[in-house]
Amino acid sequence: MSDQEGLMEKLVSLCKRRGFVYQGSEIYGGLAGTWDYGPMGVELKNNIKNIWWKMFVQGRDDMYGVDAAILMHPKVWEASGHVSGFSDPLVECAKCKKRFRADHLENKEKCPECAGKLGEARQFNMMFKTNIGAMEDDSSVSYLRPETAGGIFVNFKNVVDSFHPKLPFGIGQIGKAFRNEIAPRDFIFRVRELEQMEVEYFVRPSEWEGKFEEWRNGVHAFNEAVGIPKSAVHELEVGDGDRAHYSKRTIDFEFDFPFGRKELYGLAYRTDFDLSAHMKGSGKDISYFDEETKERLTPHVIEPSFGVDRTFLAVLASAYAEDLQNGEVRTYLKFKPSVAPVKAAVFPLLKNKPELVNKAREIYAELKKDIPQIMWDDNGNVGKRYRRQDEIGTPFCITVDFDTLGETPEMRDTVTVRDRDSGEQERVAITDLSSYLQTRIKV
Ligand code: ATP
Q1: In this prediction, what percent of the chain has a pLDDT beyond 90?
Q2: Does residue 168 have a cis peptide bond before it, meaning omega lies within 30 degrees of 0?
Q3: Ligand 1 atom having least distance to the Cα of 308
Q4: Domain residues of the chain, as ranges?
Q5: I need a surface site. Which of 17, 19, 140, 355 has the fewest CB within 10 A?
Q6: In CATH, which superfamily holds the domain spanning 342-441?
Q7: Which residues have CB under 8 Å from 312's CB, separation 6+?
Q8: Is 170 exposed, middle or buried (0-12, 13-18, 19+ CB in 10 A)?
Q9: Measured from the CA of 192, which atom of ligand 1 is nearest?
C-alpha cells in the first residue's frame, strides 16, 4: 500500500472513530454514495460553509443570497439541457454485471473486476427522477436538482425586481444537489447526495475577462481561508474540445487528493446560455435593463462552483499530521482555528476533586457563552485528553489545576492553555481567557 492510499484509510477511520463522517444508513449495511456527517463533521462543514457565505455573499455589496427549493419545475431541467444531456457513458460487464463509467476506464473492453467482456457504452442520465403528488404518470415527473445553479437562474428576475442591482452583481446559494453517479467512490469525493456552494455572477459581455480573473483569485482566497495550501491546488485550463459548447472558458481547480489529482472546483464563463435558455423555456422576459447604458440585454454569467464535500475532504487531508511526542506517534489535525469543529476544550486536572471540577465547570460555562464550539472533557488523564482533542483538531486545551485555586498564590485564577501544534503551554488569567481565545480562533 502506498503512503497516499494509507493516508486515505487513516482519514476514513479517524472520521468514523471521532464522529466526523459515518457511512449512510450504516446499520442497514449502508447505502452506496451516501455519507452522514456526525457531531464533529457537521461543525467542520458548517464552518466551511459559513466562511464561504461570509466571503462571497455577506462580505460583498454586489452579492445576494438565496435558498431555493430542491424540487423544481421539470421544465427548468429541460431548458438547462440536463434532461437531454446530463449523462455519463455507462458500460456493463457481461459476466459479473457490474457497471462502470466508460470514461474512467483505461481498457474499455475488459472488466476491471473480473476481466469479463464489457458491453457497448450507453448514455445514462444522472438525475434522480421522482413523482410529485398522487399521480405516478409522465405529467407528475420531477427531479431532485442535480446542481444548485438552477435555483439561482429562476430567481434572477425576482432578485432584480426586489433590489434593482446594478451590473455586475451575483447571486449565491449553498444547498444539496443529487446525482445518480454510476460509480460513487473515494469516500465523500464522489457521492450521490452532495452539497454545493455556487455563485452566478452576472456581467456585461464586455467585462467578462476581468471578472473571471477576480473569481479565479476568489477561489484561491477561499482555499487559503479554509487551510487548503496553494501548493496542492492546480489549475487546469479546459481545452476547446472538452468544454461545454456554450462555455468560452473553464478552469478546473484540481487538488492532490490521497487517491490522485482530481477536480475540487470549477470556474466557467457560461455566456448568456442559461438566462437565454430559461427565457425561451419559460416564455417570460427575464432580460435586464441597464440604466447606465440605457440598453436592454441578457447578462452573461461567470460561475464559480464549489463542492462542500470535496472541500471538507481537502481540508481534512491538508490538516492530517503525525509527529513524535515523548517517543510516541501522535496523530493530529492541524486545522485553521476558524474551521476547527471544537475551538477549545476545558479540563479539570483531576476529575475526583470537586473543587477543581467546580472551578473548571464555571470557566467552561462562561466561555461557552462567548464561544459555543467549546467542549468539556474529563475522561481519562490529561495526556489521553490531549490525544483525543489533537485527533479532532482542537487548537487549544485549557487545564484547571491546583494553581488555579491558589496553591501557588501568584498563579491564582490562571489556567494552562496548551497549543495543539507546538504542544507549548502558557499561563493565562481567567479574566483574559475569552478574548485570548477569540483573537486566536478568528484565523
Ligand atoms: P466530476 O467531473 O468530478 O464528475 P463535474 O465536472 O461533473 O465533476 P460540476 O458539475 O462542475 O462537477 O460540479 C461542480 C462541483 O460540485 C464540482 O467541482 C465538485 O466540487 C462538486 N461535485 C460534483 N459532483 C459531485 C459528486 N458526485 N460528489 C461530490 N461532489 C461533487
Answers
A1: 94
A2: yes
A3: 20
A4: 3-72+145-316, 342-441
A5: 17
A6: Anticodon-binding domain (3.40.50.800)
A7: 41, 44, 45, 48, 188
A8: buried
A9: 27
3-class secondary structure, 206: helix
- CATH architecture of structural domain 3-72+145-316: 2-Layer Sandwich (3.30)
- Binning pLDDT at 50, 70 and 90, where does residue 1 land? low
With the C-alpha atoms ordered 38, 187, 442, 378, is the resulting torsion angle positive or negative? Answer: positive
Q: How many angstroms is it from 307 CA to the middle of ligand 1? A: 7
Q: In 10 A of CB 288, how many CB atoms?
A: 19
pLDDT tens-digit series, residues 324-369: 988 899 999 999 999 999 999 999 999 999 999 999 999 999 999 9
CA distance 151 to 68: 5
Distance CA 91, CA 434 (A): 58
What pairs with residue 178 in β-bridges? 193
Q: Is the pLDDT of residue 245 over 90?
A: no
C-alpha separations of 213 from 219, 234, 264, 304 in Å: 10, 15, 18, 11
Distance (Å) from CA 211 to ligand 1 centroid: 23
Query: Per-residue pLDDT tens for 6-18?
Result: 999 999 999 999 9
Beta strands (DSSP E) in 164-294 are: 169-178, 193-203, 233-237, 249-257, 260-269, 288-290
**Section 106-120 average pLDDT:** 93
Q: How far is the CA of 7 from the centre of ligand 1 (A)?
A: 23
What pLDDT shows up at residue 206?
96
Distance CA 283, CA 299 (A): 17
Residue nearest to atom 15 of ligand 1 (CA): 307
Helix (H/G/I), strand (E/B), else coil: 254: strand
Instruction: Name the CA dihedral angle for 397, 401, 405, 408, rounded to a multiple of 10 degrees.
Output: -110
Angle at alpha carbon of residue 322, lines to 317 and 326, rounded to 5°: 160
Question: For the whole prediction, is pTM greater than 0.70?
Answer: yes
Backbone angles phi, psi at 148, to 5 degrees: -80, -15
CA 384 to centroid of ligand 1, rounded, Å: 39
pLDDT, residue 443, reads: 80
**Ligand 1 pocket residues where CB is under 6 Å:** 179, 181, 190-191, 194, 196, 263-266, 305, 307, 309-310
Mean pLDDT score, 245-258: 95
